[in-house]
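Person: I keep going back and forth on a fold encoding question. Show me how you would write down a chain together with its backbone fold. Please set it down just below, with no commentary around it:
Helper:
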Amino acid sequence: MPRMIYDPDESVWGKSRGLDPEQPPYPLVRHLLDTAAMALHLWDVYLSDAQRRSIAGGMGCSGDWARARGLVGLCAGLHDLGKVSGFQFCSRHGAEHLGASLSGDRTRMGGDRLGHDVAGMRAAADVLAVLGFDADGETVAAERVAEIIGGHHGRFYRNEGGISSPFFGGLAWEEQRVAHASAVFGLLGSPVAPEKFKAVSAVLVTGVVILADWLVSQGSYLRGRQEALEPSLGAHFAQSGIDAASLLADAALVPVRLRRTGFAEAYGIKGEPNPLQRSVMEELPDAVQGGGRGGILLVTAAPGDGKSEAALEAERVFGDAFGTRGFAFLLPTMATSDQMYGRVSGALLRQSGQGAGLTLVHSMAWLNSAYSDAALDPGQGVVTCDGDEGSAGRERVAADVRPRQWLRGSKRPLLAQFAVGTVDQALMSVLPVRHNMLRLLALTGKTLIVDEAHAYDPYMQVLLGRLLNWLGAFGVPVVLLSATLPASVSDRLVKEYLQGAGHDLRVLREKSFPAPYPGWLYVDGALGEGTQMSAVRRQEQAVERRMDLAVTVEPVVHGSGGVRNRLAVIERLVEPAAAGEGGTVLIVCNTVGDAQETYRRLRERFDDRSHEEGGMVQLLHARFPGDVRESRTREVTGGLGRSGPRPRRRIVVATQVVEQSLDLDADVVISDVAPLSLLLQRAGRCWRHENWWVRHGYPGGQGRPSWAGQPRLIVLDPLSGGGGVPRQWGEVYSEFLLGATSKKLAELGASSIAIPEDVQDLVEAVHGAAADTFDWDTPDGRQKAAWTAHQGKDLAERGQAGLVAVPRARSVRRLHDLHSLPGDEDEWELATRLGADSVRLLCVFLQEDGRRTLDVAGDELVPDPPAGGRLTAVAVRAVMRRTIPVRSSWFSAEDADRFGAPQSWSEHPMLSDVRVVCQPVAGGVAGAVVVGGKTLYLDADLGLVRR
């Protein structure tokens, strides 16, 4: 066993690439001390009380947070211990400066190749034993620290132990590993090994280590320290502690405390909170006093009832009760996330949150207009590997790390105090992908808000449940929002959270957690008991929001049918608004093709002006280029929003993009038949702001047209009267759910739906537990087949999610369980949505002179720099904002080369996988292209057309 020594050889280097080649590389021991100092600062400033409580409790240090703090610093200070190995010879510059006592082992040690993360994990046991960490007996502290060292590049490995490989060197190298560890250990005050170290706590500690390493590995910081090394390691460590504060502030990771304001001022609205919101503000604080280990809040109310503001008020309550700071507000789609980002940004600014870290978190967030071109320029790189992982050309360098832009780099946006994005970004934390522990660190310091909780298929519900299980283990407060969530689903999600919090599954099976509608249910993580919104407030909310929704079913035929032809029926229904008194109509179609066809027909019939020309008919769907879709969404929400100005005549033809989180109010909603829960979502865009306008006045003093005497949903039902699902709908919706919805609507007859009283019963009738049973005595063979297919798909999706998700939190024994699937998985290799395989398509235009341009007019060339040239951030943005997400199945294997990206894009992480369809231009008109047996072309008015 090597002796205890405190004089590490500073020729052993930690960082070399990107630094001044005229100077020796940055000493490893100093990088370890930098990281340890940053970890201590993260503990003091960045981590929430809830995170500190969770980590300390998992170490058996609940009453001694200072001890837990030192242990976190030690884990960070040992993270690169594996670099004291053959790693030292992977850089010529580094090897040239290696001391004489070590440099002679190059030939012997250079034969094997091992990542320094794995090397550190295997070498940790011997080193930790010298530091007093006993790996024997019941304590697993040394093993856990070793696992953390091995996982600091975002993937946990099975610890097979042992340093017999020549890669680890001989006695001199052993002594240097101990010397480096001893220097860190001593400057941290020689922290005492914990009696226990739970896996879930170690996951968070690993996240802290990764974050600390990234922050102190910025090139500009390292170059500054390299130029003026302090004379002693003690002085260096002290300076690192001072520097940590500015590095954290420059990264916008210092939490801010918002100024408490009144409800109306905070959210920029007139009037007082409604009964639902007032109940959260006044009654929820009493409900959360019983536990102390987090809880889950389910808010159920009709669309337009202010659930988002209720959730943000709940976050205030949870922050005070549990010590969390900030929130992650997650939604089903990028479009809804973009909308919510604007609302949250305004709310933060109105509460003096100018210095708060706020990020938009989805794969295309950087295309949002809130992110300027200047913000996309790469800044100082964070070098997290120096050549020993991955093949040539795959060095792990994270870009976009400029001051105040640090959070916009890869895998970092969730770390902000406030984040808005798609739920997929959180679900990644419970898939065996690289850096899932960093995502968990990001989520556990704040309140998690999941909007539109009903919008997720069985596969995503299982992943969401697994995420709630982990958050329950950490005591993270959660808010679920929904207008149409079946009780069986909400009950499963609540029980997943409680199981993670430590409640016995056998006891939970005997319980149920019914949520009132409208209202809220809070279930305490520690006590496992539920508290509901008071009956008085529920009644007040029901009265304030009450609406009798008239439902009319129009039997239709697609493609023919005379007076029952779908387009003919729509023409008749919109005529009062389009040609008569005026008004606003929202038409929701099930497919983009149907929406395009409907829009064309209405333009021909009522107003030949295009959307861009200010015509009364507007079109919105997901197959517009990103910049066009963003612009059209603003126009549609502006015309049908709460504040106005409200157009005299407006017909909006759209797809499912308007179902969720878009603030629209139409005089009448016309919809293709869809599963009943979605029809109710679409109906939520009918007279959405009526009660508000009655109290505060209609925009411009213009009320409803006389033909709109009450809110009305008109359902275009091709199944009514024995018809079938239109072929072009494919598998957009389950045939069983469509049939069950059609049957339920027929049972309603001429009755109206009382909102909110009837909503939950209707949802349960089609989507609830009762719908999972089937009368096998029915003679309808088609219905039997539809039910069987529906149930089979449901079970298959749940089973698939169970196979790919990480284990539940309390069943994890070794951290390797979080990355137990074979291979080198990363985000793009495991999906958060089944059937979501997609590519981004770019339509470019081949001009008659041979130029390829981004526009039909030929003014903007496709960026294609020569060999060795660089694509600017502005050019990348110009391309990506014009792309359209489409199914990857549109392209065959043979199409990959035909529609591949230019060679100059091949190494770019965003552009390399873009499919480029080149439309020939003749006489200023773009022609179509055949792709996969279908004709494709981009039309300025219709969007991407596929026939």
Observations:
- The radius of gyration is 30 Å.
- Confidence is low (pLDDT under 50) at residues 372-404.
